[in-house]
UniProtKB/TrEMBL annotation:
Pfam families linked: TIR_2
Record-annotated TIR domain positions: 1-142
The protein, known as: Toll/interleukin-1 receptor domain-containing protein
TM regions (residue ranges): none
Species lineage: Bacteria, Pseudomonadati, Verrucomicrobiota, Verrucomicrobiia, Verrucomicrobiales
Domain of life: Bacteria
Keywords, sorted A to Z: Receptor
Keyword Nuclease in record: no
InterPro entries, sorted: TIR_dom (IPR000157), Toll_tir_struct_dom_sf (IPR035897)
Length: 316
């Protein structure tokens, strides 16, 4: 059984919990024994227990995000000890990329990251796809490092059992449709991603334009509404209100006027499904990045489409 230590920032608790659920299949199969600090019991010595588990793990997962990199304990203590053990050949270290951040210059840049091609989990149209990809990568490693499992050899067919090579059609594809729950969840997850995308971008905007005298404001009104405003020298130069769930206007609606309260929109994204794959398209027939039609957009594409619309008044 492969002992796994999970190092993560508590700001990424929600994603870590989802990863826990996906890892259960390997745990139930006896392939892995995961450990993280939420398993500490009342009265345990925090530092001693973490050190003990980190120093005996076969595999260390680093859940990488800007929160992880900003954490002194994660980046400065747990990661560095994990890399010392990796260099000594005592453990394998796997970076798991949760979201966009500049990890390619970090001390673990030489390690192969998960998901495949280091695509951040938050960039998957459905984060469960990314988490499942991580589990498959860990399974391969656990199969190599853990105790091998017994194999079951099935008896061969009786000698008198003919093996018939029957003709078959090449037309065997069956339509796969997303459930209503999957559709609703995709809209919710995309709206939440757009909100976080705007919040992070607004925070960064003044620093990227030091001579423009910019100030920004992001406000989450409720679970289905947020606003964004940019001021230049104290003057409002761009504002928007983004809402989720207005079926008449689109699944996620964009308004340039905060006073509209979602009653009128300038653009909106509608959910579309193609062979079970979910994405968004512009109701108004807009163009993504000014070139291609805004359709087939995943979470990041939807966020960038609205952000580009929001930035237009500042870039004329």
């Amino acid at each position: 059984m492969t002992k796994i230590f999970i190092s993560y920032s508590h700001a990424d608790e929600k994603l870590k919990q989802e990863l826990d659920k996906h890892l259960k299949i390997l745990e139930h199969s006896g392939l892995i024994a995961p450990w993280h600090d939420r398993m500490l019991r009342a009265g345990d010595d925090f530092a001693l227990e973490i050190d003990a588990n980190l120093n005996t793990a076969d595999v260390v997962l680093l859940l990488i995000s800007h929160h992880f990199i900003a954490s002194h304990y994660c980046f400065g203590i747990e990661m560095r000890r994990a890399l010392e053990r990796e260099k000594a050949g005592e453990a394998r270290v796997i970076p798991v990329i949760l979201d966009h951040c500049v990890w390619q210059i970090a001390p673990f840049k030489h390690l192969t990251a998960l998901p495949t091609d280091a695509k951040p989990i938050m960039m998957f149209a459905n984060i469960n796809e990314g988490l499942a990809d991580v589990v498959r990568g860990i399974q391969k490693l656990a199969d190599k490092t853990g105790t091998s499992q017994p194999t079951v050899n099935l008896p061969p067919p009786p000698p008198d059992s003919p093996i018939v090579d029957l003709p078959r059609s090449s037309n065997l594809r069956v339509k796969v449709a997303a459930t209503e729950h999957q559709k609703d969840q995709f809209v919710i997850d995309t709206f939440d991603y757009i909100a976080r995308f705007f919040e992070g971008s607004l925070e960064e905007l003044p620093d990227r334009n030091p001579g423009a005298n910019l100030e920004t404001r992001f406000q989450r009104i409720d679970l289905v509404t947020f606003t964004a405003v940019v001021y230049s020298s104290g003057k409002n130069v761009s504002e928007c209100l983004i809402t989720k769930g207005n079926a008449m206007l689109g699944d996620i609606a964009y308004s340039r006027d905060l006073r509209s309260r979602g009653n009128s929109v300038n653009d909106a994204l509608a959910l579309e499904e193609r062979d079970g794959s979910l994405s968004f398209k512009s109701v108004m027939g807009g163009f993504y990045l000014g070139r291609q039609k805004a359709e087939g957009l995943g979470m990041e594409g939807a966020a960038r489409y609205f952000w580009d619309t929001f930035m237009e008044p500042l870039q004329r």
